[in-house]
Design a protein that fits this description.
The protein is α/β, with parallel strands linked by helices and 495 residues long. Helix content is 31%, strand content 19%. It has 2 domains: 6-171, NAD(P)-binding Rossmann-like Domain (Rossmann fold), CATH 3.40.50; 173-224 and 245-372 and 395-478, Dihydrodipicolinate Reductase, domain 2, CATH 3.30.360. Strands 7, 8, 9, 10, 11, 12, 13, 14, 15, 16, 17 and 18 form a 12-stranded mixed beta sheet that branches. A 6-stranded parallel beta sheet has the order 3-2-1-4-5-6, sandwiched between helices. It starts with 5 loop residues before the first helix and ends in a 24-residue tail after the last strand.
Amino acid sequence: MPSLDRRQFVRGVGAAGLASLGPALRLGPPRRSDEVRMAVVGVRSRGVAHMNGFQKLAGVDVVALCDVDAQILAARSDELARKKREQGDGWAGAAIDTYTDVRRLLERGDIDAISIATPNHLHALYTIWACQAGKDVYVEKPVSHNLYEGRQMVRAARKYGRVVQAGMQSRSSSAIREALEWAREGNLGKPRLARGTCFKPRPSIGKVDGPQPIPDYIDWDLYCGPAPLGPLLRRELHYDWHWQFPTGNGDLGNQGVHQMDLCRWAIGARELAPAVGVFGGRLGYEDDGDTPNTLCVLLAYEPVPILFEVRGLPREAALQAENWNLEGMDRYRGSAVGATLECEGGWLHLPNYRSAVAFDSKGVELRRWEGADSHFANFIDAVLERRPEALTADVLEGHLSAGLCHQGNISYQRGKALGPDALRNTVGENTWGGPALEEMIAHLERNGVDLETTPLRLGPWLEFDPSSERCTSDPEANHLLSRAYRPPFVVPQEV
């Protein structure tokens, strides 16, 4: 890629991304393992695991870091340099380059792959740009901020022949893979329902009385990227972006996408759900978040639907002050965060990213599986072999599982507030939704939530065409499939 000044670069990227800067690198013969040079983009939190995880793999060298926060970038660069000195093996004297703008990073022809751990709204654009620049990509979950972005990521990966791994570690678990095969052989009878739970403590993020100052070490333009360039309207700049729709997807798309992926994997679904309906809200406090902290999503696959629940409040109100941590949360089948395949003759429980347990209909344990491989190593192996099909979580898997979360959030955003009796009249007769509604109401009552004054929201029942990935029952819902992008941070129609 030629070297361009900022003005030339922005003008070239505006309409078609990085594709205009020249042909991307094509698949070539396998390279030696010691030639894998990586950059990590987004290094405040999850990116630290990327930085350390890739660097410790034999023959992989993390040579560059990128972040819009100059303070974090400097600290992580020092940390990586120290780890390299400790690691030795020829890396001790290797330079670590730092970048604020990922576009500058992608101009480098000597970097083979990048891993992305930025806020959700940047995942798709950075992945597409990287594919166009001839880089392979490991991208955190959810891979996309909306449905349109996920499909464009898949198209870019295929067009440029890139290896793109979604950060859904469960897919590299041999235990879960073997357990699901065992269940598919009929050992628990016919499956009836896949049920996922994300019962994770989420206190209020507070409420500000106006725009907050942007630290001078943050490049706010790059931080906002495809999102509107507006003021900071939350107390904490970092992490709490999850709970505002312009940048995040709520806990459904944050923690929940892992368990949603397990549910989809368990029923063998290979496309978006044909219909979705939700009920829930942001309840128990009033703050600057607008994503739901309490939500039930029904994805109407046939013959086995998915029922997914999010609860950010604890078992009861007293725990909000005393024990608002994972131990204080509700449980399903023994787990606050997990997935379960309910079958006629028992159930298969997936409590984490590396194990599975089967029970008969009386709750007697039948079999247990344990074990997982490195998800990072799987990505590197596929890069070296030039075989995207060797990935355990190809970008298409990431798109579909994130897409189910997006479908739920679309229904939620199209919903309207209803009192408990009106909700019962609408949802109560649904085989799975009716009991889930009663459980949710009881959960909220234990937390002191008055559903008459702060009602739940009922999302409309939305029908989708899985082949086009568009809503067929509510044309207005299709406006939420994508967003109005802010040039030059545009996810292009032609990747």
